[in-house]
Amino acid sequence: MKTTSRFVLFNLTPKPWREKSLPLLFLSFIKTTFLPPQVQLTRLKEANEKVTSERDSRIAAENREKEALRRVQRQLRESKDEQSELLKREQEALKQKHELVRQLVPGVQTYYVIADD
User: Phi-psi region for residue 86, left (φ > 0), alpha (ψ -120 to 50) or beta?
Assistant: First the structure.
């Protein structure tokens, strides 16, 4: 290898093993590396379509998950509202029961113990 001020020159003297294999290797390299623009364009379009379809499917899955989350949150909110309404009704019923017992038996004090589960 000789060096000049800016360039490196390689010694490519013909050797018996290089004479036959070098052109074949070079041609196969050119065939695999340098594709016609139409082929490259087709492959790039296919790759682009694949990435776009994957992106669209992921966006659709994300939207489905968001909608499911909204539904579950709504159901939770409704069940909490229903539970609070039932607790209010239960407390009103206990008050009415207490008043009825007091009216039926005057002078009797009743105490209720509500267990928290």
Answer: alpha
- Does any domain span residue 104? yes
Identity of the amino acid at 94: L
Confidence of residue 15 (pLDDT cuts 50, 70, 90): low
pLDDT digits (tens, 9 = 90+) for 29-77: 555 556 677 888 888 899 999 999 999 999 999 999 999 999 999 999 9
DSSP state of 9: E
Per the structure, the count of domains in the chain is 1
Q: Is the pTM of this model over 0.70?
A: no
On whether residue 77 sits in a domain, the answer given is yes
Q: How far apart are CA 37 and CA 20, in angstroms?
A: 30
In a domain, residue 92? The reply is yes
Q: Give residue 78's domain range.
A: 35-111
Of 88, 94, 89, the closest CA to residue 111 belongs to 94
